[in-house]
Amino acid sequence: xxxxxxxxxxxxxxxxxxxxxxxxxxxxxxxxxxxxxxxxxxxxxxxxxxxxxxxxxxxxxxxxxxxxxxxxxxxxxxxxxxxxxxxxxxxxxxxxxxxxxxxxxxxxxxxxxxxxxxxxxxxxxxxxxxxxxxxxxxxxxxxxxxxxxxxxxxxxxxxxxxxxxxxxxxxxxxxxxxxxxxxxxxxxxxxxxxxxxxxxxxxxxxxxxxxxxxxxxxxxxxxxxxxxxxxxxxxxxxxxxxxxxxxxxxxxxxxxxxxxxxxxxxxxxxxxxxxxxxxxxxxxxxxxxxxxxxxxxxxxxxxxxxxxxxxx
Length: 312
Hints:
The protein is of the alpha/beta class. The chain has two domains: about 5-155, no CATH class; about 165-310, no CATH class. It has seven helices and ten strands. It has helices at about 5-35, 45-75, 75-100, 115-125, 135-155, 160-165, 205-210, and strands at about 170-180, 185-195, 215-225, 230-240, 245-250, 255-260, 265-270, 275-285, 290-300, 305-310. A six-stranded mixed β-sheet has the order 2-3-1-4-6-7, with no helix packed on it. A four-stranded antiparallel β-sheet has the order 5-8-9-10, with no helix packed on it. The longest helix has about 35 residues, at about 5-35.
């Protein structure tokens, strides 16, 4: 084997290995920071996260091995920009692939894995993408870019993030409905739990329920306090029976909506209310379906917040 062949093989291995190591390391570092900032909450999710990050690091390494020479042929800034964009795109794609294979369990991650894989993927692609004579100079510049990129994704100004992501302060309230023939009566259920602080059955909420033509008895049963931040939005979920299958309802976009469980499915009022792609997921309690309905609210960072919606 000639020296030139050895050198060529070494040049191929270097981007491959550096891409895998840096992608895995930075992804894990970001995940660790997220868990630490939540005072250790989500530490149990780190092992499955690392398991899924290993093949992602391999994807980054393979892609980087193919594209590094193309990045280096470009001027420095465009080369880094293309490398970063490629890593970000692969991070997005990998998140959707994992979500597809894991299914509903994907929502169990208690920290935003999308952010971790975006930063890790971009960092892995950036390392070694510049065409420098000095390796020391290359490492310094790329380390600065990776640090700035990581800080940027983790500390985007809140107001800008809220605007771009349609963040909102969402309140969720459940209503147990017992259809009847008499005019609608409303009460606060004795078994109510998890209702927002200082919750009151206001005349406004009662008026909205009556405007739907409901008859019988409704009891405000449970829900969640405000989730997220920004403009207020609220959802009243009216149920008359336990679920047989999980249900996904779209979140309103800065307005109040009412979801009513009918005989043939769910109806949203008003029907033309603006909604977001994010969902509210409902399902019967796994251990005792006759006892409670559970819920999870999809947050802007892809994580979930949930609990007991109502008890039967």
